[in-house]
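Quick entry between incubations.
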Amino acid sequence: MASELSNIDRRGVLKCMTWAGTAMVWTVTGGVPLARMIGEAEAASSGFTFAQISDSHLGFDKPANPHTTDTLAEALNQVKALPTKPAFMIHTGDITHLSKPAQFDTGRQLMEGTGLTTYTVPGEHDILEDDGKSYLNRFGKGAKGDGWYSFDTHGVHFIGLVNVVNLQGNGLGNLGHEQLEWLEKDVAHRSASTPVVVMAHVPLWTVYREWGWGTGDGAQALGFLKRFGSVTVLNGHIHQVMQKVEGNVAFHTARSTAFPQPAPGAAKGPGPMMVPAGELREHLGIARVSLVSTNTPLAIVDTPLI
Amino acid sequence: MTEIISLAEHGRRVLLRRFAEGAAIFALVPVALASRAEAADATVRIDNFTFAPTPLTIAAGTTVTWVNHDDIPHAVYCQALSLRSHPMDTGDSFSHRFAQAGTFDYICSLHPQMRGRIVVSA
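Done. Structure below.
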């Protein structure tokens, strides 16, 4: 369903930049997350919701979207305007385009402007300089290794993984031995009935190997999680919605707030996709997830904004 | 506003980088001339998430320059040589002189599905 422009100021902004970024909102009710694009019907009234944004690429200024700060701000305005305030927000990586301190600071300032705590994982664009220190100093407090961590809230175990460091010749994302060991211990003593939500930038499942859209040792990580009744894996990186359900594990990639990328194999390479300006909004996304009480794999619903 | 600052900073760094690379190339020229007449410099284009040409066969002593034509940054990483470029944004370049003969595979450390090979003849 379309996200209607609510007032003339916003319409004016959109007229100038012709598009806007969006976020995804997740609602968790009794164990299963459900996603909806902002602008859809309201989230379930029970349970809790959280918003997901991804791939804001602050500092990107090429024709695919020369206004990435504006489109992130627009996405966050949509989060702020939600009738049900999300418990928190997640950002699944590539906050910045070039890992510059000013880009991180802009991102942090904009995200803090929502009044929500934002949990992040780094994308490969966030660790280009200084061994990722610019990212870790701002977003990695209390995290282990290159920035991985976990926390519990509302009965759900959230895990933030880093799969963009020390990339190897296999052409895919990489978690590495140290992080896998940590993950195994992190979940070892948890009840299998605990809903688990995993965040990582590059898809943990292989979306398209030829473009590196997968994680080489992702299967090992998923192996530690297979005994859990509800596992939701939230990724970014590919700037489009992809979903897959495998057993009790639901995989979901988010849209970017900055620019779309082509469907796997639909272009010569996975670079930014130019779309007619009036259509870009269909390709940028923010959605909501509901965790609902059911024994079936979660259903995640995405709808383009236009 | 922040974009303008970061771009200015970025531009300054690119200039510094190019100056440094230019200086390095100038330093190499007399050596190359003094040794053997060949070893003309070679360029690898980065376009649409691919390195071209690859494989690239060169004579020892050749300086290879990678130039990024994508609107996404890339970085050259050759494990065998412990060679790691800075992240190259659009239009940025990185140069390395291959002194020893051998076959050297490299990847983009940001997009490891991008593979290239330099074959250096003695």
